[in-house]
Recover the amino acids of this structure.
């Protein structure tokens, strides 16, 4: 009779963990938990030729499955990326304001939800100094060309870096506008109590959608861009 497959309790299997990480992070095909579990099961079969009901019973493989739960969250948000204002544009605006450019106003935030910084993608706290200046989110030369006022912090701030997550400060009060590669607006939907991620994914499912812009639903001001991964 064949000896049972045994692995000492504290044995680590980095090769399999690394393979799983690469496979899940690098793939855009996997979008649901069931697909991930299916992928995990196929790796788990490396542990032996047990019937399906007995697979994943080796503790080490079960640990792998538990450890992969965080990747499910990453995969769900990996169909798009958030594009904040570039640091170069923010720095240029700060220099222009410092040199007294008439179209770059220095203001002080006086409310907790009226001054969104397009660079760090958070609301300015009351008392923070902001620069208000015009920004052409849709460049000149197109029917939907648009230039409008935006804020950035007057003092250097860290550019928003969680680009696979919708910015927490702007889950309400935004409209999502989808544009094609010629900057024509082809669809728009207000985030009205629903998850913005679902609206973004629906707009990006249209083959002609090149990008989606998040704007203020009340003032219409550009907030940030969303692109496909
Ligand atoms: Zn900022």
């Amino acid at each position: 009779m064949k000896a049972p497959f045994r692995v000492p309790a504290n044995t680590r299997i980095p090769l399999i963990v690394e393979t799983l990480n690469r496979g899940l992070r690098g793939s855009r095909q996997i979008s649901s938990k069931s697909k991930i579990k299916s992928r995990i099961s196929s790796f788990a079969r490396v542990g032996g030729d047990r019937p399906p009901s007995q697979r994943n019973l080796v503790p080490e493989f079960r640990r792998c499955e538990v450890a992969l739960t965080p990747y499910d969250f990453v995969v769900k948000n990996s169909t798009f990326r958030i594009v904040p204002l570039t640091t170069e544009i923010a720095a240029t605006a700060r220099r222009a304001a410092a040199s007294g450019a008439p179209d770059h106003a220095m203001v002080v935030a006086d409310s907790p939800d009226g001054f969104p910084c397009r660079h760090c993608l958070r609301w300015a706290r009351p008392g923070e100094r902001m620069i208000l200046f015009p920004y052409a989110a849709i460049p000149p030369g197109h029917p939907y060309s648009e230039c409008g006022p935006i804020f950035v912090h007057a003092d250097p701030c860290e550019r928003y870096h969680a680009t696979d997550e919708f910015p927490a400060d702007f889950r309400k009060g935004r409209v999502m506008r989808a544009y094609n590669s010629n900057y024509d607006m082809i669809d728009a939907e207000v985030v009205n109590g629903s998850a913005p991620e679902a609206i973004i994914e629906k707009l990006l499912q249209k083959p002609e959608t090149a990008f989606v812009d998040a704007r203020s639903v009340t003032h219409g001001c550009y907030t940030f861009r969303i692109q496909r991964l």
In short: The chain has a mean pLDDT of 78. Residues 117, 119-120, 152-153, 157 surround zinc ion (CB under 6 Å).
